[in-house]
Each structure stands twice: as structure tokens, then as C-alpha cells.
Amino acid sequence: MWILKSSIGRKLIMSVSGLFLILFLLFHMSMNIVAVFSTDAYDMVCEFLGVNWYALVGTLVLAAGFFVHIIYATILTLQNQKARGNQAYAYTDAPKEVKWASKNMFVLGLIVVGFLALHLYHFWYKMMYAELAGGATASGADLIKELFASPVFSGLYLVWFAAIWFHLTHGFWSAFQTIGFSNKIWLSRLKVIANVFSTIIFLGFALVTVYFYMMSL
Ligand code: HEM
């Protein structure tokens, strides 16, 4: 099938799965902000997303989204490296900050996934997995309070959000370019929207971390 075999087909899969993950990030960031206003309301949201068929289907679809995105990122990176050969470090005149994120998308992705594994241990394992295994579930709000009372974990999470910021500043506009927004005017607009959107995502997640760290002092 062309979509699986051709370079543009593979890029399309990367873009669509990336945009899906971006929607998840927006939802997850909005949901977390609830904790700043009311920890009880946050626990109600977590309970709603606990072990029931729609949350489990959501988790599986999300896991599939991550899986496809990572597999195709690996395939495309290897393919590009092979195609570039010893031209891998050829100079381009793209703006510096864009060039840095775009050249480091795979490494940034690896950093994001590495922290995600730690994050899933901190929350998913203690909440959803515990419930699936028939044990007592922890309260999402209590886990947040406990985790972000630690300056080390708060700092690590902020580094994670910064890696996501860099990854999104390139991934966002690049995904739209792949699906067809490729004319010059739209491309420069999309780059601005990408920076604004990535910064909103960064600030939303960081707000929760910094707020609970400050509350613990
Ligand atoms: C302040 C930052 C964050 C907090 C407080 C937080 C909190 C949580 C909590 C409480 C859960 C468990 C929800 C449940 O199972 O009901 C969860 C799950 C999850 N989080 Fe986060 N999160 C944060 C940042 C992130 C980021 C940046 C990502 C992605 C890069 C992420 C990805 C996930 C994933 C994939 C799950 C599993 C979702 C599922 O079970 O379907 N989280 N998070």
C-alpha cells in the first residue's frame, strides 16, 4: 500500500498521528489545570477517566497513536540518514531556532518518551493499573501534591515540558505542511501559531507543577 511504503505516505502517517497526540496534550493539559482550582474536582475527572470501557478504549487508541508515531519516526529518520549519506550536516539557511528543533526531532522525541515512561509510572501505574489489578487506587490530586513537593521531580518535569515545547514548535507546522498547508503565507502563519500553541501547552503543564511545588513550601 502506497501510504505505508512511500516517503510521503509515511510522513502523512507521522503527521496525522502527531496531530492526534497534540489533541491529547491539549486535553490533558486542560484537565490538569482543574487541579489548581479544585483538587476534589480533579479527582472527579480522574474517576471519570478510571477503569470503564470508554476510558480503556481511549487508553488503547492513545497507546496506538504513540506506537505508530514512534515507529514511523524511527523508519523516516533511518530512511533520511541513508538518503543523506555524508551530506548529513549540509548547511541550510533556515532560521537558527527552527533548524535546531527540526534537526533534533528524533532526539527530542526520545527524551519526551523517556520522561513519559517515568510519568506513567508516577500516575498511570498507581491509578489505572492499580484499579485494573483490583487494588486500591490513589487519588490523582494526592499524587500530584506528593510528586511536585519534590524540587527534583518538579525540575525534571519542567525539563520534560521544555523538550515537548521544542518538539511541538517544529512538529505542529510541519504536520500541517505535510497535510497540505504548504503555500508560503500559510507556512509563516503556521510557524507563529506553532510557537503560540507550544507555549500555551508548556505554560499550562508548568503552572500545575510550579503551583503545587509552591504550595508545598
Ligand atoms: C503537570 C503535568 C502532568 C500531570 C499533573 C499529569 C497527570 C496525570 C494523571 C493524574 C494521569 C492518570 C489519569 C488517569 O489514569 O485517570 C496521567 C496519565 C497520563 N499522562 Fe499525564 N500528567 C502531566 C503531564 C503529561 C504530559 C506532558 C504527557 C505527554 C507527553 C502526559 C501523558 C500521559 C499519558 C499518556 C497518560 C495515560 C493516559 C491514559 O491512561 O489513557 N502527561 N497524567
Could you describe the 3D structure shown?
The mean pLDDT is 91. Helix content is 84%, strand content 0%. α6 (105-122) crosses α9. It is an all-alpha fold and 217 residues long. It has one domain (2-86, 96-216): Fumarate reductase/succinate dehydrogenase, transmembrane subunit (3 helical TM bundles of succinate and fumarate reductases), CATH 1.20.1300.10. Protoporphyrin IX containing FE is lined by residues 25, 28, 32, 46, 49-50, 58-59, 62, 112, 116, 119, 123-124, 127-128, 140, 144, 164, 205, 208-209.
* SSE class: mainly alpha
Over all CA atoms, what is the radius of gyration? 19 Å
What CATH architecture would you give? Up-down Bundle
- Give, in order, the helices and strands: HHHHHHHHHH
Relative helix content: over 70%
User: How many helices?
Assistant: 10
Q: CATH top level?
A: Mainly Alpha
Instruction: Give the overall pLDDT as a whole number.
Output: 91
- Distance separating the two termini: 57 Å
CATH H level, superfamily name: Fumarate reductase/succinate dehydrogenase, transmembrane subunit
CATH topology: 3 helical TM bundles of succinate and fumarate reductases
| Residue share in β-strands | under 5%
Question: What is the gist of this entry?
Answer:
This protein is mainly alpha-helical.
Mind sketching the topology for me?
Layout: H1 2-5, H2 7-37, H3 39-48, H4 53-84, H5 96-103, H6 105-122, H7 124-132, H8 140-148, H9 151-178, H10 184-216
This protein binds protoporphyrin IX containing FE.
Residues 25, 28, 32, 46, 49-50, 58-59, 62, 112, 116, 119, 123-124, 127-128, 140, 144, 164, 205, 208-209 line the site of protoporphyrin IX containing FE.
